Amino acid sequence: MDAIIQKRLGLKELESKIVTADEAAALISNGDVVGMSGFTRAGDAKVVPMALVERAKNEKFKIDVYTGASLGPEVDKYLAEAGVIRKRGPFQGDAGIRNLINSGDVLYVDAHLSHNAELVRQGIIGPIKHLILEAVAITEDGFIIPTNSVGNSPIFAEYAENIIIELNISHPEALVGIHDIYVPAEQGKREAIPMTDAMQRIGDIGIKVDPAKIKAIVISEEPDAPSLIVPPDEETQTMANILLDFFRDEIKAGRLTKQLMPLQSGVGSVANAVLDGFADSEFEDLVVASEVLQDAVFNLIDAGKVKFAAATSITLTEELQKKVYGNLEKYADKICLRTQEISNHPELIRRLGLISINTALELDIYGNVNSTHVSGTRMMNGIGGSGDFARNARLGIFVTKSYAKGGAISSIVPMVSHVDHTEHDVDVIVTEQGIADLRGLAPKERVPLIIENCAHPDYKEQLWDYYNRAVEATGSHQTPHILEEALSWHVNLAKNKTMKKEVAKA
Amino acid sequence: MDAIIQKRLGLKELESKIVTADEAAALISNGDVVGMSGFTRAGDAKVVPMALVERAKNEKFKIDVYTGASLGPEVDKYLAEAGVIRKRGPFQGDAGIRNLINSGDVLYVDAHLSHNAELVRQGIIGPIKHLILEAVAITEDGFIIPTNSVGNSPIFAEYAENIIIELNISHPEALVGIHDIYVPAEQGKREAIPMTDAMQRIGDIGIKVDPAKIKAIVISEEPDAPSLIVPPDEETQTMANILLDFFRDEIKAGRLTKQLMPLQSGVGSVANAVLDGFADSEFEDLVVASEVLQDAVFNLIDAGKVKFAAATSITLTEELQKKVYGNLEKYADKICLRTQEISNHPELIRRLGLISINTALELDIYGNVNSTHVSGTRMMNGIGGSGDFARNARLGIFVTKSYAKGGAISSIVPMVSHVDHTEHDVDVIVTEQGIADLRGLAPKERVPLIIENCAHPDYKEQLWDYYNRAVEATGSHQTPHILEEALSWHVNLAKNKTMKKEVAKA
Questions:
Q1: Residues in B touching A470 (Cβ below 8 Å)
Q2: CB-based contact (8 Å) between A472 and chain B?
Q3: pLDDT in tens, A391-415
Q4: Domains of chain B (ranges plus CATH)?
Q5: CA distance A435 to A429
Q6: Exposure string for A114-152, b = 16+ CB within 10 A, e = fewer
Q7: Which of B262, B350, B491 is the closest to A347 by Cβ?
Q8: Mutate which of B88, B419, B478 to test chain A, going by most A C-beta atoms within 10 A?
Q9: A318-326 vs A295-302: helix axis angle to the nearest 10?
Q10: Whether the predicted interface score ipTM is above 0.95
């Protein structure tokens, strides 16, 4: 056996379990519920799923796949397109499986990421037949060390009948020690989560299971699919500046200090750009407590702005991944990977007072946010952790450009076509046009702020026209709407390729 | 001074603060933000607000009123109709103020009840000029003892500049000792809430403030407005039985035990009837951890079914109030009144694994729930605590009759006209027709359960017709809808007084 494998496989009794990916894949049967590691294309099982793809060429079978969050193409493109996935949860972000979800070929259970563990405990997700878990090592004392994400793997490992390990030796051994695995007991028999500071470690360095559950170990060198975020553009830069000015105002008002509060920032380019904006700012000693650490966080650590960053996954562009993996020792005491149950736990988000920044697909004049469904029907990615954070954060911020498709779509509409975050959960909205601070305001007080500060100039008049007529029509109800027209902007878009009214009339 | 007043006013230095209601009301100025005690028409300030109503006959002034939850008619009818209330939060349930909210005369900030305390700490609600607080006593060591609700009074007391006490001697002194007041510190500086069992007491028997803040004490004998719940009818009885059978099935499946988990049941007749259903059941040693204790809970204590019940308010019908107040000693070690921040805290709801039962106004074929807005625009009561509980509960149940207005309205519609609880937060739906267990299901899997098990027979065909055409029109998207038609049932209702399609055509 390779020296490197011998070194990574500390628990010697497991050496006999080393098999090929095909042999491991053969353990999986039609109808199985399969848990897989992976969160935002990081730390996902890859070689066993690809062996399943091969197997599917000669055999018809289907499985249910539950993960931490989105996976790379091995599962969410190739395995899905091979027709192997019957049901998928709780999050995805790949065009391959997305198309199958929106054609009725794959059932998709889009769920709050902090809820999954409870559903596993109750057996609503499950019984889990197999967990396929990418690991960087198994220590002598039997800790399975995940790679660059934790996600739901610890709770899957606790409840799964069998565990298949993908021992991925392309990840550096220096990852050992950065994980902090804490799994609450059953509801009603559980202690308070013993964390009062986002920088605290409260658990183990890895996942402890009965070694007899480990049925196969496959050696892998497959790298993660790299992060797909695009660099900041002028508009995301503007949004970042608007947000920084807002934080400055909050400090002046005595509601925040220069260290702010632990920051959560959602997956994606806008959120990443917003974080990037801190690099040249006066803010310091920042702490990140998020679900995913993207490039910006490591740049902020390098810049001395962020002193600690915890999440459940690290998703980097290829270039930054090389840099971070080459200097992991430098970051080791400044980063920490937790389970998604902990990174997204309402108990901790509320206690620690997080500032949360997530991306909206569209929002309405009253502050309701759609973050999942294009035109109300077509699933984009999923709600992910945005609900966990927005609902419980000290400050729940949503960011979006005010328009899409070159101006044919207004991100601000009379009524969102699908609601993921209600008016009660949205504190602040930022577009490249400006900011609307909705805290403490009644619906009708929010309207002028959202239209005047955040909507694209092309749509302001049209929004005011709708609102004024809705007030008139209802006699100024709590939330004025004209139900015949509330979704007409989306209908117009489908028919005339634009939300602009003049074009519809023409 | 009356002996009874002397006895209730333990802190003797406060005797000089006793004034008339008019004198106390004179302390309040135009533009003030005023906190008031009271939650579900229990423990609310009454005589000072009525003095404000008198004052408003000769003087134009407006104030913002924040409370625990809904108040009796003194504030939410008379004070509102006197034109004194500019803004109101976070909950109401009176036709008087409701009409003013829906005519644009009163601004209404409908909010999650667990969120208010954080907003007070941040100064988003505030600065609070006065708190008007109904108390049953002030002890020698300076604890202000609220009457039959706690609500937001402790956090208001901490942040208010002035406190006006309504010392209500019609409440029995035996209330002293049933409160358990625990107020978390600021976010980021806070410990875990030290409760791992719903029966635990973690705080003080009353509210401690700097006595210098108490600017006036008014003696009152005004009783609370009695609870308005109506007795169970055949249909609510049926819903209760369906729910009990569901719990039995959960026990068989190993997901619950005969003690169930701590029960939360929302305000209202349906929820009360469901609880009543436990009286003749085999369930025992039940614990209630709710926001309000209605008649049913005391009946269940009497029947030996409930061993402990905690909430933030006790709201009883006149008859039961007499019985309970006459025997308070009997209940003293079995009940407990907490702040609404604690009764509704996500941290505790999740940790303790609550079963939550709340009322829906309408719900859609995918499981989204509207619990606040009639036809999407007109505010009914508010979201109250339903979001705190449904989101974080182990089991989030919504109950509603399948129809309203004699069948002209279907409570199950293609798309709800307003969303308070998204598809991600609704586990189980119960109508008098049956039950839909939505846990772990994708949107399209939920549809047949909701239509077949829960919809009224008069509307099943019409719902299937919409759904089937929506699947066809979208090519089976994640959440099929026809946006032109999604809200047409409400439009039909407005135009033709019915959601039935045939009538619309006729």
A1: 377
A2: no
A3: 999 999 999 999 999 999 999 999 9
A4: 3-220 (3.40.1080.10), 234-496 (3.40.1080.10)
A5: 6
A6: bbbbbbbbbebbbebbbbbbbbbbbbeebbbbbbbbbbb
A7: B350
A8: B478
A9: 40
A10: yes
